[in-house]
Amino acid sequence: MLVSVLSFAAWIYLVAFHGRFWRSSPVLDAGVPPGRAKVAVVVPARNEAEHIRQSIGSLLAQDYPGELSILLVDDNSTDGTAGIAASLDDGDRLTIIHGEPLPPGWTGKLWAVHQGLMHEDTKTAGFVLLTDADIVHAPGHLSALVAKAETDGLELVSEMVHLHCETTAERALIPAFVFFFQMLYPFAWAADPKKRLAGAAGGTMLLSRAAIDGVQGVSGIRDNLIDDCALANEIKSTGGRIWLGHSEQAESVRVYANWRDVWEMIARTAYVQLGHSPLMLMGCIAGMSVIYGAPPLLALLAHGLPRVLGALSWLMMALAFQPTLHRYRRSPFWGFALPGISLFYIGATVTSAVRHYAGRGGGWKDRVYPETPGA
Q: Phi then psi for 334, rounded to 5 degrees?
């Protein structure tokens, strides 16, 4: 009875009072014309030969009316990433920065971003777009981002780009990843100046240069593996205004071919998200079990009121998942599979913790980070 009441109460709260996270919105208005502020785009890349042609090509094809420069910071790639990008240059908009060796205390991505922010083009820009080397942008994307920032007076405009969702593993697991992200960082709360919560998605982050200077760039978060949310927190804590939404003009072309690829994506940073705290890990497991695991068990195996409450919780869960499933063109019936999918995410989170204590946490692009400040 206690578990059924807790689960039911949790879903009432999540659906009615948790920032309407389940709505899978907002999205940018693509029809607002931007100004002509100078924009610099910084793309950190390490061994991205598979994707860099599409990514840089889409940035070079932007129809932005103002001055635009694109800086690819090649983080010591060994697969010809920089050469492929250089072959796309159609003038003087693209600059290739060959990254310096990674110093102690920095993650590779943030060290690359730091070098891009130190370039003269970014120092003199009104806005800086930070984007990943596996993101493809529609021609009007940059214009829409700048228009949003200028119209609403925002220091940070960020979007959860549309993730690749074609393989069997992606179709089963990626919509849930987006759903859980929305639950952790309700977009409405991130945009609310009265809320302390700040969030961003690293695939698309348009920042005002003033906001970047106000937090001294990325030096203060140099060792953070969840760099997007860390930077958003820095900006919001200094009074900067944030907007976080879903993108209909940018998509990731990174493919997660099987369940292990998705598992590795989660295991890389899940325990970082929990602050490397065993108590937080136990709380996460217990909370996920009550919120996601208990409802179907109660609905199928219990009797009386616990069964009714379990069924209602399962139904609310499935309904809350529908907008995200619709965004990714998945069957509505996947809503009822969310309890099973949550077990996958719990397992990956536990793996993340085990790797941390074994000294193998934070592995990415053939690097393993110590995950300790200043290490």
A: -65, -20
Distance CA 153, CA 208 (A): 10
| pTM beyond cutoff 0.85 | yes
Confirm if 27 and 245 have CB atoms less than 8 A apart. Answer: yes
Q: Which residues lie closer than 8 Å to 137 by C-beta, 6 or more apart?
A: 55, 58, 59, 62, 131, 249, 250
What is the full per-residue pLDDT of the chain (375 aa) written as tens digits? Answer: 999 999 999 999 999 999 999 999 999 988 888 888 999 999 999 999 999 999 999 999 999 999 999 999 999 999 999 999 999 977 789 999 999 999 999 999 999 999 999 999 999 999 999 999 999 999 999 999 999 999 999 999 999 999 999 999 999 999 999 999 999 999 999 999 999 999 999 899 999 999 999 999 999 999 898 999 999 999 999 999 999 999 999 999 999 999 999 999 999 999 999 999 999 999 999 999 999 999 999 999 999 999 999 999 999 999 999 999 999 999 999 999 999 999 999 999 999 999 999 887 666 676 766 544 333
Distance CA 92, CA 108 (A): 27
C-alpha 285/C-alpha 303 separation (Å) is 25
Q: Look up residue 206 and give its two tokens.
A: 């348009």
